[in-house]
Amino acid sequence: MKVLVFGQSGQVGRALAAQASLRNVDIVQHDRQAADLSDPARCALLIENTDADAVINAAAWTAVDAAEEAQEKAHVINADAPGAMARAAAARDLPFIHISTDYVFPGTLGPAWKPDDPTGPLSAYGHSKLAGEVAVNAAGGSAIILRTSWVFDAKGKNFVTTMLRLAESRDTLQIVADQHGGPTPAAAIADACLTMAETLLNGPGKAGVYHLTGTPDVSWADFARAIFSRSGHRVTVQDIDTTDYPTPAARPLNSRLDCTSTKAEFGIERPDWGAALDQIIKEIQS
Ligand code: NDP
Fold first, then answer.
1. Model-level pTM?
2. Which of 56, 74, 135, 215 could form a disulfide with 61 if both were Cys (CB 3.0 to 4.6 A apart)?
3. Is 125 a known active-site residue?
């Protein structure tokens, strides 16, 4: 299989390159210079001219708070561009995998969100990502929207690398304890995208919306405690509420995603974030 990937430098983009080499998948990866998502027509043209068998979009506007002040730009990158990509892929009958987020949900307390639960974003970022989902669905091709949450790897600007950096200078940190979700290793998302692309190559029967997050679900505060204990840092975590840590963009309290259909349709298990965390800490500390 040969896959065209939008997004090279991000967490999932880098993981896709690594997973593709492990799985003997050919990958053609476009960075921002080759494929700026601010120019959806250019992205579509790259798909029109590709000799790849499938397309994965791992690029996005991911600056959640900054999106509040740049709604139009975020909309072009997170909605117009994936829509144009999905239409181009559908026209050529190419499977298209697009990554989305727990932020499409309103985050109200209750059980984990199922793929077909009603959406209701709280933030401009969430609205832009939901508009992307709608545009991809409307294209009508063989497409999968894979929602995930709390992505981490060893190099990205994420919660794990932020906590490890803060641990060098702080012995106490106040961390939000009333938001819950599944921390997800970027490698697991990349692996799932490739499995899904391969599956769609055999027919569009499993196209649709799916969830993949790491297990078990935790609060940010408990995730921070795990990071410090597993990395050998003595940092005391004090629980605080979301209301004690105001941000420009509202965050969902309930980011938990129900991944049952992902396991049922593709055999993909929720990744154990603890094992991935140990590996990443080892990588960072060596
Ligand atoms: P990153 O922020 O690590 O990477 C984003 C990627 O998008 C980078 O390669 C970046 O390139 C690229 N990009 C941004 N703007 C443009 C543009 N205008 N044109 C071309 N490329 C652009 O994101 P992740 O890998 O963490 O996220 C992957 C997907 O997962 C996204 O769809 C995101 O919405 C989703 N997601 C992420 C979560 C998280 O916690 N990070 C949680 C839930 C979902 P450059 O380096 O040049 O800026």
1. 0.96
2. 74
3. yes
